[in-house]
Amino acid sequence: MNTTTAERIDSQRPRILRLYNLYRVILGFGLTLLTSSSLREGVLSLSNPEVYAQASWIYLFINVLIALSLHKGRRDIHLFVLAVLDITLLGIIFYAAGGIGSGFGNLLIIPVAIGNVLLHGRIGLLLPAMSSLVLIYLTFFLSLTHPYIGQNYLQAGVLGAIYFAVALFVQRVTRRLYLSEILAREQAASLASLEQLNQLIIQRMRTGIMVVSADNRILTSNEACSQMLNRDVPQGERLDKIAPELEQRLRQWQRNPSVRARSFHSFNGSTELMANFKHLGSQTGDNILVFLDDNTQVAQQAQQLKLASLGRLTASIAHEIRNPLGAISHAAQLLAESEQLSVQDQRLTEIIQQHSQRMNRVIETVLELSRRRPSEPQLVDLALWVSHFAADFRSAHPPTDALECDIEKEGILTRIDPNQMTQVLNNLCNNALRYSGEAGQARAILLKLYVRPDTELPVLEVIDHGPGISEEHLGHIFEPFYTTEATGTGLGLYISRELCESNQARLECDRVQPHGCCMRITFAHPKRLV
């Protein structure tokens, strides 16, 4: 038997010893009862009642002492001595009871069997050998001291062979049982290791994973799920209390699983999330597995496809529209130089040239958008970046244009492409100045940088106190080519929003009371991987 098997047996010794000692104490009580002549009359005929009584009481007393001190003597030598003592005392009782005919020789089978369960290897085979020798010797000794009692040597030999058979059988069965137990424990350890590995992988995944019960209670979730929902997701909590938007998507999916769930935002200013659902079992009442994906990467891929399509379109525009537009503008210039034109015709040529220039600016802006390089995000201190931008902006504008900064604290970090975001901020500030008053007048705008306490996301606001944006225009200002000015291209805010999305930021517009406008940029968390 190998070392691992022996260790497994050692671990089971206390339990086996408790059961074995309980059996021995019960057996001792039973043997002492038979010391009463009235109880054994007609059941047992003793050859030596005095020896039987003494041996029975000694057997009971020793077993009670051993049972009370069970925590001691668990080594092989102690177990072997215990088995030998058991065989010796039962052998004496066997002799006093009258030998083979009493049937007490069968009592030696239990010590032999238990001894071979507890003892390892060949030492266990000493027990059936000793039991057989004790049985044969006492049978022979009884034939000398009590010749009137018939002794069956053949039965004694068969009983000795049974001892050996029981010992070999118990050792074989015990080895198989413990080997099976070892295999089961190794498989359980392997499964536990795999489960731990799976849990670690799930916790490290960027996809949010959540298991929801049939009554909409959260059973488990990973770390990415908490980050996307921007709050702890305790087990047993109801889903509608943690993420009402997600709970609505779940109910929509349960009503019609074939319809793809719409994207949603877990909180104001958060990234766009997409939820997918799957039953863990085959029944509709089983637990539901929820997958949460950040749509940022999908949006970026869609943005790249859109820019690629826009690039092909602008190439066609440059060839099909720009060249004829240049010819129209040149012809209008030549026509304006004619001395025979009336004043009204001169005005018409000016209108042609103005609108030709406007269309050319639109084409230039679209070409610039299509040629825009991919963003190169880096970790940026927004407080320092805003301060530098404000200094550069003030130096490029007259003193009548005031730019104030309200920075909550230093060390507000995020990951952006500073060149692209400088272009966005410059566009927003110029728009804010333009709507704050006429050039040359006293105009003021405010840059406010802070961290939202509920989401820990950096926010930059560009605030002016102009007339603001009307309700009818507020929902369309980020659409391409949408403008309320006769000379505008309608692409400034559209390009700003596209650049923000390329840097995992969100650009929103709010009205300021009593009048004014706030363009708000919500940046990504600095720990977000781009």
From TrEMBL:
Annotated transmembrane regions: 21-39, 51-70, 77-97, 126-146, 152-170
Domain Histidine kinase: 316-527
InterPro entries: HATPase_C_sf, HATPase_dom, His_kinase_dom, HisK_dim/P_dom, HisK_dim/P_sf, Sig_transdc_His_kin-like_C
Catalytic activity, reaction form: ATP + protein L-histidine = ADP + protein N-phospho-L-histidine
Top-level taxon of the source organism: Bacteria
Gene Ontology molecular functions: phosphorelay sensor kinase activity
UniProt xrefs under SUPFAM superfamilies: ATPase domain of HSP90 chaperone/DNA topoisomerase II/histidine kinase, Homodimeric domain of signal transducing histidine kinase
Keyword tags: Kinase, Membrane, Phosphoprotein, Transferase, Transmembrane, Transmembrane helix
Name of the protein described by the UniProt record: histidine kinase
